[in-house]
Amino acid sequence: MFAAGVGSSPEPFVVDSPYWYRRLRELIPRRDELVELLRLAFPVATVQVGMMLMGVVDTIMVGHVSPVDLAAVALGNLYFFSASVFGLGTLLALDPLVSQAVGAADREGIARSVQRGAVLAVLLAIGAAAVLAPAGPVLALLGQPPDVVPIAAGYVHAALLGVLPFYLYVVLRQTLQAIGRVGLVVVTMVAANLANVAFNWVMVFGNLGFPAMGAVGAGWASTLSRVVMTGALFALAWPTLRPFARPLRTGTFRSAPLLRMLTLGAPIGGQLLLEFGAFAVIGVLMGWLGTTAMAGHQVAINLASLTFMVPLGVAQATTVLVGRSVGGGDPPGARRAAGAGLMVGALFMVGTAILFLTVPEVLARAYTADRAVQAIAVVLIPVAGVFQVFDGLQVVGTAVLRGVGDTRVPMIVHVLGFWLVGFPVSLVIGFRLGGGPEGLWWGLVAGLAAVAVLLLARIRYRFARDLPRLIVHEDD
Fold first, then answer.
1. Cα separation of 149 and 145, whole Å?
2. Residue 203 to residues 129, 200, 439: CA-CA distances in angstroms?
């Protein structure tokens, strides 16, 4: 134990040396840095909430068709995002690359990253489509309800054509966030949500001469909305993006830099796959308990996912600010940006936890009038309230580490937390102890808590050391 200074009492927080203590104190943000984070996080979180609202609209509108259609959307969404989340995460390699290039005023570095990101988006979309195509046989093999599988597979096939627009949108979005032009993303997200409501009204319920397609119509509405979203963003942002998109930079299609970028992004994709996979497996296990359990699970997970979009937006803003500070040679600024993100993300989730714990009945009734489905959701929503704070800490913690290019350790942490802690707890409480749907969800609580604690420990270790800039060289 070392003292903080001459004549001062020993600091119980200090473990190794005053060097650790000074670095960890730098995680405390200044007021102006909190304001800067909130200024960037608000539009980013708005975009994330808007993205999730598309799924909420699908769920609410289909929920008024039938419990079978609602369960099909739940199952179809699980399969769709299980197949596409790896590509989404891999493209988040743009966060540290572009934001650090912005901090270093390296315009060529920005351009090369954006162009390679577009190339990777196309390649990853092809891979995701190959996984999505056999949805029906795979869902049947997983023992899902026979009356739900054909409809869920139809939903997946309708949504399949939206994968490439979705990935290209991620490339555009991450680039614009990093360079500080988030307003354009917000505008296109509003337009996409309005389009999604209209497409759902037409295709789910059969208006304007279209047949009523239920859950499958929601899949087509999602695809068309993603096309609108990406096309509108590209058109509005073209004046900003043109210097980075044209001319085509030398080495854009070279395998070595693309592989280096993939090496950076793949652990992020793996981490998201592990995290989403844990929730997806719980959804599959819920299907073993019946259509009603699956529908109730969908209501609760949709609510939890909606509130999660805010700390996810805070997380993306934190990555940008950490990355800019690292690129600009300001490690103390990076540490304070990390502290600001963790503080804001945790405080927001405390508020949503209180909401989930106090009025679950009101929230459940907004989704469905089916009493049996409501009963399941009312039990699960308070459990979601318990894991809210852990969820906020883990998503911001992962983003903090991504901002400095630390992507492999978070992936390992997610393996340990979700699959070696959370999943066994779900199985034991849900099936062996007879806890049913609620028991399966307590495993999610355990997994998220473990991940949050381990990530905070990693941040403590990583940010007490040097924070060099991450560069993908042409000769890599």
1. 6
2. 23, 5, 36
Cα(400)–Cα(317) distance, integer angstroms: 10
List the beta bridge partners of residue 3: 10
> 352 and 385 in contact (C-beta within 8 Å)?
yes
- Taking alpha carbons only, the member of 261, 268, 285, 314 closest to residue 120 is 261
Instruction: Identify the domain containing residue 440 by its residue range.
Output: 24-462
Cα–Cα distance, 344 to 265 (Å, whole number): 26
C-alpha distance from residue 75 to each of 83, 144, 277, 446 (Å): 12, 9, 13, 23
Residue 257 within any structural domain of the chain: yes
Tokens at 93, concatenated:
């390699």
Distance CA 279, CA 286 (A): 10
Q: What is the pLDDT of residues 56-98, one digit of tens each?
A: 788 788 887 888 888 888 788 888 988 999 999 999 989 888 9
Which tokens is 227 given? 């096309």
pTM score: 0.77
Total count of domains within the chain: 1
**Dist. CA 395–CA 393, nearest whole Å:** 6
Do the domain assignments include residue 18? no
> Which tokens is 286 given?
């819920």
Average pLDDT taken over every residue of the chain? 87
Q: Please state whether 467 falls in left (phi above 0), alpha (psi between -120 and 50) or beta.
A: beta
Evaluate whether residue 402 is within a structural domain: yes
Residue 470: inside a domain, yes or no? no
